[in-house]
Amino acid sequence: MLIKIVKQLILFIIGCIGIISIVLLFGARFPAEKNSQEIEAQYRLDSSSFVTIDGVRIHYTDQGAGSCIVLLHANYANLIDWEPWVETFISSHRVIRFDLAGHGLTSSDPENNYSLERTLYLFEKLMDYLSIDEMALAGASIGGTISLHYAERHPDQVKQLILVSPGALNPRARGKLEPPNLPFFIDIITRITPKKLVAGLLNSGFGDPSRITDELITRWHDLLLREGQRDAQMARMRQYVSGDIDKVIANIQSPTLIMWGAKNSIVPVELADEMAELLVNASSVEKIIYSTAGHQLVQEIGKETAIDAFDYLVKLN
Question: Which of 72, 149, 153, 172 is least surrounded by Cβ atoms within 10 Å, i.e. has the fewest?
Fold first, then answer.
């Protein structure tokens, strides 16, 4: 039995070396990229719309009527993840969500610019296109960091702010004014991207990995394999900076709700208290800690967080 296992291990290692060699020598990708039109046909929603802003074809949905709430997803995520929030809000709110450049069904940026400034510019232009004068803004993870910057710049437009596991205080990015110096070999994930890589990414973000569904893993993996998306993700990783985030947080004026998972292994829950303390100019600050959940609250306990967010906005109004 042991000899059989060793033989299988050797064959596996040889196979992996073979795949890596082919990828590096011939520029192939494993798995191969998926056709954008086929992916769009598979994952577009009945409510999906598209608009091209400065060369980027943005996928968004605009549903319901009433007070507006805008939903901004996390890195590697997509607007479909917000479905429990849409279901909760749509009967009484106008609900807008969109895919960031290089995510979901939004195209990569022809300028290959995924900086915070470029992201905010596209966000602002989309809000102008949709004629949004006032909004509640909810952002998850990197979407939370983007939301903080947007709310600081547009205090008259952002009437309420909801931060869902914001990544702003992550020690690896906090206060950085220059992009990270990533090792060159990390680019291999743009060439070799097995489904297990996505499963591992989700596993690290859930407090209870048993909540991860096959549908979620497959959707994230399929959308990552869409033409241009892997390169876009890597470019964002190499270009991203959070800026002087402590100063940005201190300038926020909107009433703010902080949502955090106690089992958050990406941005520890202790930072939720620090986030609240930094919001010195917010008109009010509330905090909800979810004892069994991790970093990816929208994906893990979407319905629970949606109801809490809804009740929070109703109370404010």
Answer: 172
Whole-number Å distance between alpha carbons of 91 and 184:
48
Q: Give the Cα-Cα-Cα angle 298, 302, 308 (nearest 5 degrees).
A: 105
- Compute the average pLDDT of residues 111-127: 97
Quick one: three-class SS letters along the chain?
Answer: CHHHHHHHHHHHHHHHHHHHHHHHHHCCCECCCECHHHHHHHHCCCCEEEEEECCEEEEEEEECCCEEEEEECCCCCCHHHHHHHHHHHCCCEEEEEECCCCCCCCCCCCCCCCCHHHHHHHHHHHHHHCCCCCEEEEEECHHHHHHHHHHHHCCCCEEEEEEECCCCCCCCCCCCCCCCCCCHHHHHHHCECCHHHHHHHHHHHCCCHHHCCHHHHHHHHHHHCECCHHHHHHHHHHHCCCCCHHHHHHHCCCCEEEEEECCCCCCCCHHHHHHHHHCCCCCCEEEEEECCCCCCHHHHCHHHHHHHHHHHHHHHC
Q: What is the pLDDT of residue 27?
A: 61
pLDDT of 214-243, one tens digit each?
999 999 999 999 999 999 999 999 998 988
Amino acid at 151: A
Residues across the chain: 317
Residue pLDDT, tens place only, 173-194: 887 788 888 888 888 989 999 9
The predicted pLDDT at position 7 comes to 38
For position 173, what pLDDT does the model report? 81
Sole residue written with tokens 């050797």 = 10
The topology (CATH level 3) of 31-316 is Rossmann fold (3.40.50)
Domain boundaries, the chain: 31-316
Q: What is the mean pLDDT of residues 23-30?
A: 62
